[in-house]
Design a protein that fits this description.
The complex is a heterodimer. In chain A, the strands form two sheets. In chain A, strands 2, 4, 5, 6, 9, 10 and 11 form a seven-stranded mixed β-sheet that branches. In chain A, strands 1-3-8-7 form a four-stranded antiparallel β-sheet, with no helix packed on it. In chain A, 0% of the residues lie in helices and 55% in strands. Chain A is an all-beta fold. By secondary structure, chain B is mainly β. In chain B, the strands form two sheets. In chain B, strands 2, 4, 5, 9, 10 and 11 form a six-stranded mixed β-sheet that branches. A five-stranded antiparallel β-sheet of chain B has the order 1-3-8-7-6, with no helix packed on it. Classes of the chains: A mainly beta, B mainly beta. Chains A and B meet through strand 5 and strand 10 of A and strand 4, strand 5, strand 9 and strand 10 of B.
């Protein structure tokens, strides 16, 4: 069983469209995250959710909105897609929000905006 | 705010040779340090982590790292490189100032193994 799964794996879309990426974890963890990896492979955290509450929101445009229907899922909605949104988006989860917690990553969603 | 610096965006070693990937951290409070590996077109996998229990940390796949406070370093080593070790390696940090900030990653080191 895949611990952290994401769908779709690849996403190609036009500028201005709205898209969603789904993430599910079957580890029973309480905290989930979204990271963005740019073309230079630099990883930066976007959001984290703990017990269905948004904990952090870095300097991410409000076109990006995380939605968590339950603690096993954290979906990422992106409105009015821009060329600069092209990247690999990783979902991750950890048992809790503690700073020493190991984060488990999904396989990534490769988004290309044309 | 914490940060990590990985020296060398690319490191090339021969199969069987020592692997040394460098990571230096900057944190105003005791850090928690992680090494993750990313194989091509895959997600990140934890290799090892330092949480103050022991300065020498052993991880998976024969990797280990030593926390040196005096040098603010957490370098990753493996005695003998295998072709399967070719991947991107990321050093990351959180600190006791608040795990809500998630992991702060270095820019990654691409490890190339030459036959």
């Amino acid at each position: 069983d895949t611990a952290v799964s994401q769908t779709p794996k690849y996403l190609v879309t036009q500028m201005g469209n709205d898209k969603s990426i789904k993430c599910e974890q079957n580890l029973g963890h309480d905290t989930m995250y979204w990271y963005k990896q740019d073309s230079k492979k630099f990883l930066k955290i976007m959001f984290s959710y703990n017990n269905k509450e948004l904990i952090i929101n870095e300097t991410v445009p409000n076109r990006f909105s995380p939605k968590s229907p339950d603690k096993a899922h954290l979906n990422l909605h992106i409105n009015s897609l821009e060329l600069g949104d092209s990247a690999v988006y990783f979902c991750a989860s950890s048992q809790d929000l503690g700073f020493q917690e190991t984060q488990y990553f999904g396989p990534g969603t490769r988004l290309l905006v044309l | 705010a914490q940060s990590v610096t990985q020296l060398g965006s690319h490191v090339s070693v021969s199969e069987g040779a020592l692997v040394l990937l460098r990571c230096n951290y900057s944190s105003s409070v005791p850090p928690y340090l992680f090494w993750y590996v990313q194989y091509p077109n895959q997600g990140l996998q934890l290799l090892l982590k330092y949480t103050s229990a022991a300065t020498l940390v052993k991880g998976i796949n024969g990797f280990e790292a030593e926390f040196k406070k005096s040098e603010t370093s957490f370098h990753l080593t493996k005695p003998s490189a295998h072709m399967s070790d070719a991947a991107e390696y990321f050093c990351a940090v959180t600190d006791s100032g608040g795990g809500a900030d998630g992991l702060t990653f270095g820019k990654g080191t691409h490890l190339i193994i030459q036959p």
